[in-house]
Design a protein that fits this description.
This protein is an all-alpha fold. It is built from eleven helices and no strands.
């Protein structure tokens, strides 16, 4: 008898199964919205899909009466800039510190306890400290993202470096390679795809820290807009923004996966 754990759906069926939960959630929302609007047509809690689309379209295409800007795109540009800088700095720190801590024993003994201790600190707990230290401008928001995800990326890269076969390092040294050359030719090509994977896993936390910082101190951004309209229970704006953030996060994850697959096809094959 063929066991369930050995049965794989065809590709087309797999896509349909992946879409099924989203369709069910959409149908459940439509049913709940219709029930609430039938009792109260002005109910703001669960607006209809038409209202959600109209609000999203207005924010994306109609200039604001107050500023003359396209609100959605201004907020998106501000948030993506902060997120991009925070993630890029975290990746650079993860690559450099992770390789040093994982490859050089003296560096590992020195840095590992500090990295572990910092990783245990809840990033949102230090948010007031960051705002006091760096002000309420862009720097504090970027630092929060780095503080939140860099230790995770560093530890992941360090673990990958420590798992490299010792034979590779010994052979490289036998052939006369210096420590710098070993890092460039042996360690870096094998660690970089792991860095992209670690970044993918950290993106969810990065979005969390971004939204939290924008909710407290910002004048534009996706998180700022959500918390600005929450006092008016403007679900017609909040829900499209949540969906938009989810779509942006999904596209970022997809982009990193594609880059990993294109640049390091052997890595995906090895994991599979």
């Amino acid at each position: 008898m063929k066991r369930f754990i050995n049965q794989r759906p065809p590709r087309a069926v797999g896509y349909l199964l992946g879409l099924l939960p989203f369709v069910l959630l959409l149908l459940a929302y439509m049913a709940a919205s219709a029930a609430r609007l039938a009792e109260n047509p002005n109910d703001p809690l669960l607006p209809s899909l038409g209202t959600l689309f109209d609000t999203f379209w207005r924010l994306a295409t109609e200039p604001s009466r107050r500023t003359g800007e396209l609100v959605l795109w201004v907020d998106t540009a501000a948030s993506l800039t902060r997120l991009g800088l925070g993630v890029a700095i975290s990746m650079a720190m993860g690559l450099v510190v992770g390789i040093l801590a994982g490859l050089i024993p003296y560096a590992g003994r020195t840095l590992s306890p500090l990295i572990t201790a910092v990783a245990m600190i809840p990033p949102l707990a230090v948010l007031p400290i960051l705002f006091i230290t760096f002000g309420v401008g862009e720097l504090a928001k970027i630092v929060l993202i780095v503080f939140g995800i860099a230790p995770f990326i560093i530890r992941d890269v360090q673990q990958r470096v420590s798992e490299l076969p010792t034979e590779q390092l010994i052979k490289a040294q036998t052939l006369g390679a210096s420590s710098w050359l070993i890092i460039l030719r042996v360690v870096l090509p094998q660690v970089f795809p792991r860095l992209l994977d670690a970044t993918r896993l950290a993106l969810g936390a990065a979005w969390l820290f971004l939204i939290a910082s924008e909710a407290i101190a910002a004048t534009e951004g996706l998180g700022y807009r959500i918390f600005l309209v929450r006092r008016f229970m403007d679900m017609a704006t909040i829900l499209p923004y949540v969906v938009w953030i989810t779509l942006l996060a999904f596209l970022a994850d997809l982009l990193l996966r594609l880059v990993n697959r294109l640049l390091f096809p052997w890595y995906g094959g090895r994991r599979g």
